[in-house]
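Data availability excerpt. The first of two example chains:
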Amino acid sequence: MATTRKEVEITLHSIRIPETASGLDTETTHLLSADLIWPRIGVAQKSASQTCALKEGRADFETVNWGRRILFKEPVEGRFALSLTLTESLDDEDLEQFFRFCAGAFLSIGAGMVESTVKPVGKLAAAPLDYAAKNIGKYPGPKLLVEGLAELDSTDFPESGGERLLTLRMTAARRLVSLVRPRKSPKLLLEKGEPNGEVTLAVRTL
């Protein structure tokens, strides 16, 4: 039986994370990273990221500029997986450090890397590429808040011109405790692996 190949565009639709571990902060900024795992033969992984502003743990991207919600525009075939992670709340200094890392990785890319994927993150409209994804382990970046993984198949998506929503259930990526206050013991919020909201993506078949 022939493998079904489809060209898909994957964009952010909405995020709901009940527990952000950010104390009294109602507005927080996070980095969402996405990985397509073996989207097609010969391609082991494609990566993308977007910064996300949440208000009380929620965000709706339906009216947000396309450039701030696009994750992938890729061919997929047969069985593959989609992994999502969302960092803890980041301040301006955290983001600036990440941008500097990404810029340095971008400048180190060789001309022969033809299979790189653009990863728009905040101020960096065209960087970093897959090089940064492969070297992210060298960067002591922000801690992860939640993670999710879905096993998919190209037949799950509609024919050309169709669109569907895909919701990934997210779980705590680490043990979450409340911010420490004077003379107060930290309060356990979630154990690692416990449910903590969902991320919904819009998948359009091109």
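And the second chain:
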Amino acid sequence: MLKKCLKYDLQAICRIWWILAATMAGAAAIAAIALRFLLQTTMSRHPSDIQVLLSIFSGLGAGLCFLAMIAAWTVTVILVYWRAYTHFYTDEGYLTFTLPVKRSTLYLSKVLTAAIVQTATTLLLILSIALLLLVVPPVEDGGLINPIVYTTLGDGLRFLADLSGSGWILTWALSLLPLLFLTHFFSSGLTFLCITVGSVIAKKHKLLAAIGIYYGVTSVLSFVGQFVFYIFSAGFVGLFDMLFAAEMPLPGISVTVLILIVDLAVACLAAVTHFITVHLVERKLNLA
């Protein structure tokens, strides 16, 4: 049943998401060309008046494209959560909860949909930035592509591989991959938890209550995160110095274990938000 619910939710979101994704990709391509022209004009010793004028418009166009990319990301997030809010916490919730599906399954489908869509949007944003880095640096012979950024990145990776071994770099990368989805899964679960708490405690203006709760929770988490970072950053720096001074495979194993611990911690936080929200939806949510 979860598979059917997830398929239905993803199809409903993707009808609009693909437009936002195309907007983001198109804006990135236009921004790359505009920034390339702007840099070439800036580096030119004697640019003509027309080139200067066009470079000004190029800079403005690139700025508008970046705004369009941010807007596409923002609308994607709003779309996902607005759909879940209307399905669960408004009068439409009466119809949603009459379906022959458990509330926990319906909720899990919404959270997974949010995490999948946000992960896909993040990957698209990364690809868009990769396109910018490939096109923006000027080329002396007038070509379109300049891989100087990736050449420099490759040199850095080769240097790291010489220190630790290419096998460990691949291991670290594979260990970090789940973190992208787990982070979005936790973020989605936390947002749904705030929306649910707002809907439980407020009879009217549920959405405003949810926004206030979300702002308060994220502010507290941000403060706690900064505090923990300042407390442990010095210790971690010393730990990494000792690890990389040691011989392999101790540093490689230690870094891998640390990454997996972070993965597990985020997964546990996501599970906690999930179970709390399911309890509230099943036991405390009253749409009357």
